[in-house]
Structures are given as C-alpha cells and as structure tokens.
Amino acid sequence: MVGKVQKKREDLRVKLIDIAEARVIAGGISAVRARDLAAEAGCAVGAIYNVFGDLNDLIMQVNARTFKRLGAQVSAAVAEEQGRPVDQLIAMSHAYLHFARDNTPAWRTLFDLEVSSEDDVPAWYLEELQKLFALIAAPLVRIFPELGREDVILMTRGLFSSVHGIVLLGLEKRISAVPTDQLEHMISLVFNHLSSKNSKS
C-alpha cells in the first residue's frame, strides 16, 4: 500500500513539473498558477502542496531542467571551438545568446524566481549554476593564469553578468541596447579586447 501511495505521489510530481515546464516555456513564470496546474493535472489545488512546498519549489524544478538544457547548449559550443580560450568564451556567450533568444520565457524564469537568500536555494540548484560557471572559468584560467582562485570566481561572475546584461538589454530592445543582429558582434568585440589587453600587459 505504501509503495502504491509513493508511486502515485511521484507520478503526480513528475506530471506537475511537466505541466509547469510547458507553461513556463510558453508564457514564463506568470503562466504558472496553482488552480490552472491543478485543473490540467486533474488534482486538487491542495495536492500540489502535498508534493511541493510551494509554487517556487515547483518552478525551481522547472528551472533545473532549463539549466540542464542551457548547459548542454553551452557545452556543445565549447566542444566545437578548440581554438584560443577567448574564442571558447565567445562561443559560450553566443550559445547563451541563442538559447535566451530561442527560449526567452524559460530563460527569463531562471532569473524572475524570487528567493530571499542563497540559504533558500536547494544545493542541487546551486550545483547546476556552478556547472555553468565552471565552463566559463576554465578558459579564464588560461587567459589570466596569474589570478588566484577567488579572483577567478569574481571574474567568472563578472563576465557572466556582463554577457547576461548585454543579452537582456538586447532582447528587451531597451533604448540603451544594440540591435539584436549586432549582439554577437558586440560580445565578440568585448572579449577580444579583453584578451588583447591582457596579452599586452
């Protein structure tokens, strides 16, 4: 009996994640509403909270899938680019741009989810983010071999924030952004200039 109850609970868990993921892909975080999820899953609203602590918990599960898809796309870009480390950073950044452009609602949901502090974020969620940072850090160490571990971490987060900002402004077509079709070139200019400055110093 316990086994059947556990299986039913797990089946509902997976079903709710699947439904929420489809809604996030189509409309972002605002498309995930408890009543709509329950109606589509064929369960009571309360059943959702028997499986997940709250909707944030459910959306984190969706974001984990998005992180894995993003990581796979960025990893593939790195694998195809075996040239200079700066070229790997450019390839990763372009892959990030393409993922954000092609999956905008899901990509935005990665950052639209509100958490009060890292203490509220599950360890597995932070691990997915660290995998992405590790991809960035690897070529950085080759470009800046003199940097200590802490500085590499800061540089990694700084570069990620820079690329993310360029992509975000570009996709939102803010007045301060460059046209979308020039984003790749802008990112390449930033990284090539960064690399050339370091090689001359």
TrEMBL record:
Residues 33-52 bind DNA. InterPro entries: Homeodomain-like_sf, HTH-type_TetR-like_transc_reg, HTH_TetR, MT1864/Rv1816-like_C, Tet_transcr_reg_TetR-rel_C_sf. The keyword Magnesium does not apply. Coiled coil: none annotated. One of its GO terms (molecular function) is DNA-binding transcription factor activity. The keyword DNA-binding applies. It holds the Pfam family TetR_C_33. Keywords: DNA-binding, Transcription, Transcription regulation. Residues 10-70 form the HTH tetR-type domain. This is TetR family transcriptional regulator. It comes from Litoreibacter ponti.
